[in-house]
# Entry
Amino acid sequence: MKLGNACYYSVQNLLSFSLLSKNLKIKIYRTIILSVVLYGCKTWSLTLREERRLRVFENRVLRRVFGPKRDKVTGEWRKLHNEELSDLYSLSNIVRVVKSRRMRWAGYVARMGEWRGVHRVLVGKPEGNRPLGRPRRRWEDNIKWIFRKWEGVVGTGWIWFRIGADGGHL
# Structure
């Protein structure tokens, strides 16, 4: 997030420059800023608080891109509301991008052989005692939650979806 903010502040003058088209500003956001913010997002285990922070960041950038709006009744300038931003920005929001990349990565790992290091790390069970308190949310828990939410599927593990109706591809 820090690097994303630094990237945003380095190009914010371009995003508010009136001679650039909105499409070009969105391309700058998607290619420069979003790629920095989402680096490694395939392995993130997001909490609701972190998802909200990502949405706030994206809305801040989009408000800079689309600029203020003149109110029809009073004639005063005001900031765009979140619903207006989502209508203007027709592409998928940042949280949905994170979830889709995470699911794509889960498909890659599920199709890997059992001898691969990534597969062994994600399937293996560590030995030893757990610390007190609620367990931290794991990447595997996010994958299971997405499957239950999208398709109502309950499995014994996330690895079970490797052979699907479409040949194992997500």
